[in-house]
Structure formats: C-alpha cells, structure tokens
# Entry
Amino acid sequence: MSSTASGKHGTWRNWGGNVTARPARQVTPASVEELAAEIRKAADDGLRVKAVGTGHSFTSIAATDGVQIRPELLTGIRKIDRTAMTVTVEAGTPLKRLNAALAREGLSLANMGDIMEQTVAGAVGTGTHGTGRESGSIAAQITALELVTADGSLLTCSREENPEVFAAARIGLGALGVVTAVTFAVEPMFLLHAREEPMPLDRVLAEFDQLWAENEHFEFYWFPHTGSTNTKRNNRSAGPARPVGQPAGWFEDEFLSNGVFQVAQWVGRAAPASVPAIARISSRALSARSYTDIPYKVFTSPRRVRFVEMEYAVPRAALAETLRELKAAVERSGLRVGFPVEVRTAPADDITLSTASGRDSAYIAVHMYRGTPYHAYFSAAERIFTAHEGRPHWGKVHTRDAEYFDRVYPRFGEFRALRDRLDPERLFQNDYSRRILGE
# Structure
C-alpha cells in the first residue's frame, strides 16, 4: 500500500503516519482542463482544495477535509528542449520516474534530494533539497511553472512572464494554486564520484568550511551519543563509471541502512536504555567506500525505515555552534536518540519562501523512529535552531507560525500579498497554511 493510499472510508494518511485527513471527496483529474473544472466545482460547493503527492511531508501541508486532488494521471514528460536545455514535466510525475526518463535521454538535473519517491509538485512546493556548494534545491532549478489558480484559470510564470508569481510559486506551499507542470533546467548526463568515510565530529566541525569549499556536494551524519560521523563527498568525475557492486551495495544500502537499522530501531523503542550502545555500534558499522555513477544513483538512496523528521536551515556560518549546542542538549537531557542527525548545505537563492532565500544555509535534520515519542527531542532541537534564526523545512515537523516567519523571511509580506491576489477567498487554505501564513 503506497503512502497516499486511502484507508477505510477515504481516510488519507501520510508516509510518516503522523498526519491523517478525511477529505469530503477525492478526485483524480486526467487533464489540466479536468483539474480546473474540479477547482471551480469545489468553489461552487464551498469546499476547500488541496493537491496531495506521495505524502512524504510530516506536516499537514496537504491535509484537507474538502476536495483532495490526486495527481496519479497528471504524469509524464511533456517536452524536452535540447536548445534551451530544459524539460517540462507534469506535476504528478514521481521524481524517480523523472530521473530515469532523463537518464534514458542522456540528461540529468544538477542536484537532487536524498529520496525520489515524491511527486515533482510535492517536492518543489515544500522546498525539497539535497546538498550543494553552488547548486541549490530542486525548486532553484525551475525555469518556468504552470498552475491553476482559485478561479480555475491557468497561469504560467517564469523570470520573464509574471516574474512576481515565479519568485513565490516555485516554493508555493500549495497556497497559491495547484501546480500542473514544471520546467527544469537540465544538463548533459555526467558522473559523480562519491567518497564516504567515517570522521570524528570534532574534526568535521573544525574543518567544515574547508570540507564545504573543497567539494561540490558535502554532507555528513552525526550519530547522537557518540563523537562519530559518516561523511559523504560527491564531486563530478571524468569517469569511468564504477558503481557500487551488487553484493556490497545490497549489504550497505539494504542490509545495514535499512534491515539492521530497522531492527536497531525496534530494539531502541522497546528498550530506550540500549540506544547509546546501539548508536556506538551503528557508527562503527559503516566503513569507508567510494564509487562513481550517474547522479540520481549517487544522490538518492532507499529509505524503508519509517520515521518522523524535523529540519531547520540556519545560516551556514552558524552550523558548528548550532550542532555543538544540539550535542550538549542531547547529553544533558537523558534523551535516547537512535537516528543519525543529517547535515547538508545550500547556496542562497532568490525564491521568496525558500529556506535558503537570501542566505547561504546549512540544514540540520533530526529524526525519530515512527511511533517513538519525539516531542521532547524535537522541542529541545527547535529551541536551539530558532535561537539562530532557523527556518524550518515546510514539509517537516515544526511549531512556528506567521509571526515568527515574518521575522526570519525578509520577503514574507510579499508572499502573503500575492496569496491575497491569487486566492482572496482562501480556497487553498487548511489549518497548516492558516498557522504558517496567518489569516
């Protein structure tokens, strides 16, 4: 059963299992015209509208008790323009299908996140990102966008056409309309060389600026209750391709990262006192390795262990201090944290409500195994992140509201004004957008 599959009586549940909704009706339009008709019908019936992807958000950003738009039939590549080096894709296309289709055409996105289960519109609308020194989020690679607005009309935007909509709608939070197609900049297929190796946390933090500067894509995972990290550096390579061998790949990506890790989470949930010992073993289980492959096979990996996640973007210069504070808080608190903390970066971009809007950013993501109490850990982490003017990922757990966002996003008022223009009756509102954007 997929993460968007309905339960009994039309109940919708997200991938993390922490959000449920009961829409009045679910519709699966097969064309942009059908989608526009459903939006007009919902407005006539006095029902609010939300499009939903694969449910990979941990917030209720896609939840509705009105009309739920399912994108399964709005998929596929519309157009590849090899002169402009762009691809236009239907909004409901899963990222994994987009990546595979581009690879067949000898093309690739410049950067991507670490999973590819999400739909294109869901990923860009919530600000999904990977890690990169120069290359930003998936939304930062958009060159044009098409959406159906509250009155049922089709609006297209780019830097040249409706640029004020383009600035905001690339990460539109589902609040400006329903995205129907996205045009991405693409480039000829290239190879990435990945180098993964354990490294002490103190060294990573002391040398972070250098590690960031020397690598196109640098990230690391810190194992709470230990002083250990696993680092990953991805850089473009002239080749030849040397993919991870099948047995080794299965052992590290499936057996260790999903199988053994799943069992470790079960044990940790049943016996929290065992978590620090498990963390020390886990941090030593992954050995150094390197491989060279096409981008989506390097950037992304399967995530079969279900979890709940909070992630904040802090100014990149504040990363080391923020992480040291988080480590001290975990050690002080008696919390038992069995999931590694993930750290990535993104360059400043010009998207109104991007977590990297106007500032070079570092992302710190904290996770807890699904079904494990996470409030104490996430609250402690959030207090630290917000003290550094952190901006939460729109699709991950946080408690911030419009008043806070008005302080940490210089262009927050600009987004709200555009929403007033495009959706004056709040057809696309739900409880979450009411909290984050205000009334």
Observations:
- The first helix runs from residue 32 to 44.
- The longest strand covers residues 191-200.
